[in-house]
Structures are given as structure tokens and as C-alpha cells.
Amino acid sequence: MDNSLSESARFAVYREKLKGICEANNLSYVFIKNAYPIKLVIRPLGGVGEQMSMLEEATEDNYISPGASILFTVKDGNLTYRMSKTFTISDTLFNKIKNIFKNMHYLWLQFFFRDLVEGGKLAALGYKMPDIPESAGQQQRSRQDCTNCPAPSWRWTSGSRCRP
After folding, report:
1. Are 44 and 29 in contact (CB under 8 A)?
2. How far apart are CA 101 and CA 104, in angstroms?
3. Which residue of 57, 75, 101, 131 could cross-link 40, Cys pair, CB 3.0 to 4.6 Å?
4. How far is CA 126 from each of CA 56, 109, 115, 121, 123, rounded to the nearest angstrom?
């Protein structure tokens, strides 16, 4: 993929890839980006008639329950998925969808952030850019290191150090 494209253009490329994969495999998708966490829901395509014909043709290797879905999310930096009912797809297809979701998720975050920052939307609403102070993370990590220290007589001091 051409890295000179904007985030929105690259997102559109992945969305088209996902659309093609879903169409080729009788699936539909919904990318939910207006709430946290961002989600991708994959469902079998068609109504009751199509699902009944899928049931008639189903084998143990390709069975999908009517109303089944796969939900992908990224929360706290962890990609998770959940299947409802029986949803059987190949490992290759699953991995393609999962990797496309990871890219779409990343590109959407980049696009959203860029739009907020370059558009001055946070400032226009009276908000400041959120921040994670470096010292807070380091202090928390140091305290934990001190707690787990092999020298039980050491303690956390006001100088942000573990000392005897």
C-alpha cells in the first residue's frame, strides 16, 4: 500500500478489502467507530431463506448458526474477539479479517486524532490535549520495583528511590 496516502485514503483501501472478502465469503460487516472501544462485527449474509439453504448445505467444517457473529475489539491495547453462536470459518479467513481490522482501527485513530489536532477542534470546544505525565508512570513502576525488591529491608523514599 502507498504510504503517501492520507489516513482516510488508506482506511478506505482497507474497507474495500474487507468488503471484497466479505462479499466473496457471504459475510457482512459493520465497523462501529462512534463509541469506545471501536468494534468490527462480522455476520453471515442474507435472510432466513439464505440461512436455511446454508443449513441444508452445511457440513461440520463450515456450519454457521443463524444470527451468529464475530465481534473484534481493541481495548486497552489488546485485540480481542468474541463469537456468538457457532461461526465456523477458516483460520486463513479469520486472520485476514483480524489483520484488516487491526489496520482499520489504527488508521481510524490516526485520522480521528489528526482531525482533532489539525482542525483545532479541542481548543474550539475549550478542551486541552490530554497528557500522561512521565513522572507518574515512572514513580508507580519504581514503587512496584521497590515492593518486589529482593532486599526486604529496603523502602520507598521521598526521593523517588528504593533505599535501605
Report:
1. no
2. 5
3. 101
4. 59, 21, 16, 9, 5
